[in-house]
Design a protein that fits this description.
Blueprint lengths: L5 H14 L6 H8 E2 L6 E2 L3 E6 L14 H10 L4 E3 L5 E3 L7 E3 L4 E5 L14 H13 L12 E8 L2 E6 L6 H5 L9 H7 L13 E7 L3 E6 L13 E6 L3 H10 L4 E2 L4 H7 L5 E7 L3 E6 L17 H4 L1 H9 L3 H9 L4 E2 L21 H11 L5 E8 L2 H17 L1 E8 L1 H10 L4 E6 L10 H4 L13 H12 L3 H18 L2 E6 L1 E7 L2 E2 L2 E2 L5 E2 L4 E3 L4
Parallel strand pairs: 1-14, 3-12, 3-13, 17-18, 17-19
Antiparallel strand pairs: 2-25, 4-5, 6-7, 7-9, 8-9, 10-11, 11-12, 13-21, 14-21, 15-19, 15-20, 16-20, 22-25, 23-24
Amino acid sequence: MRRIPATIAVAALLAVTTACSALSPPGEATAAKARLTDMRPVRDGGTVTIGLKSDPDMLDPSLTSTLVARTVFTSMCEQLYDVDQHNRFVPQLAASMPRITNGGRTFTFTVRKGARFSDGARLDAAAVKTSLDRHLHLRGSGRASEIDSVDKVEAPGPYTVRLSLKHPDVPLLGRLANTAGLIMSPKALRTYGSKFASHPSCVGPFKYVKRVVGDRIELTKDPLYYDADKVHLDRVIYKTITDGNIRMANIRSGDVQIGDQMGPVEVRNSMGEKGLQLLSTPSLGYMGVTLNVGNVHGIDRKPGTVDTPFGRDVRVRQAFDLSLDRDLINKLVFQGMYEPACGPVPPGIPLSSPVTCPRRNVAKARKLLKQAGVKTPVPLELMINTTPDDSRLGQVIQAMAADAGFDVRLRPTEFATGLTRTLAGDFQSRTGGWGGQPDPAGNIDSLVGTPGSNNQGKLSDPEIDRLIVAGRSTSDVAKRRVIYRDLTAAINKQHAVIYLYRPINYVSATEDVSGIKLSGDGLIRVKEAGYAKGSR
């Protein structure tokens, strides 16, 4: 654990911000240099190395819970549906958009014909059923609560899949355009079972070769892929480089061609640099602090009561929330290049409503702590990732909270270890977030619903659960907008997930690579990428 004096931490970070103040405003700078994609003609052949911010967890679609694993899956495991660069749902392994009948309780779609998994198995309705059943029923599945509306999966025809739902579930399409829609080879599942992550086989432009945990994942072009003529690269390597400055140094040297989840500091320092390009999109997700209020025995168990001031009394959590200044966090930690946030619903989508973030109020925070009868300073261990951005964020939170009567102790933790501790309930609070989905249910249901498989702090609130069901049950846009406005208010009232900022998805790359695609989900897609003709 690490305690850094508040005045030193904030003063040091303010100096960094002041040093960059002569640069152009972030919105103007990124608009001038960034783009969604670059479709210059490319040549066949070559290897692209992508630097990842952290090491992915299991390469098992049912069990994974990390954004970086999803980034790897974009190259080797396709979904039933995908999200295009305008955040619209489009068929991928499904051959059609779903037909919804029976009052919203039957969800039918066809499967792409002629596709094969990397191990040679045929993609058909039976293969889709095998994966969806596994997502639903495998012990520890992170997908179970995401598609828990599904009562039965059937394959009434060779390429027809029918889902019978327990109740209408409008956001289901969005979940099938996410990890729950990833389809695995039934042959590999039979052969490897629980060890599928070490031998993953899916339908995708590239297939798995090997993994060195903590270092790299290697993929090679799959000749069995149905769209192989559009794939130009021979190999894709995902290399774990947690420090953004080192990722950028590797891009400059040419050892890495694409940098994932680049931070504002690295982006601003490289803006306009010869030989580099920048892609960016507004994020559909969020980042913040999750407080453990009910994860006593593990994320897959029923919630209990964590015996800490934060677990026992919402006033303590509210006081902690009021100690934080979102605008200043964005300025100090991210040089003003992200957006303050105070809810899970991304702005700019049809279902979003304006949300006014609470202003920092130290006096009210201290009053709440006094009302709660807790002894100050109130101790809190905050688990952070071992990256420069997280270190700066932790220091600023630590300094701000100290003013209101909290003693925040930082515990830098390697990503995989932190995830293991989180799932086991072995944490008081942690920084982190969610990559985001176009339908707000994808940012809410599994993360704060009582049975949610990604509900890390095990928040359990009847009003939140009621509104989650309501949001699933109607397709009327105006009604759903009101529901998600009320749902955001209900979540914020509990102060168990404290939304702080909404990132911008920044991807840096060498200028000689073309065809990289980036959507609002933040995932890098290199299916059609390659080295531009005339380059090295």
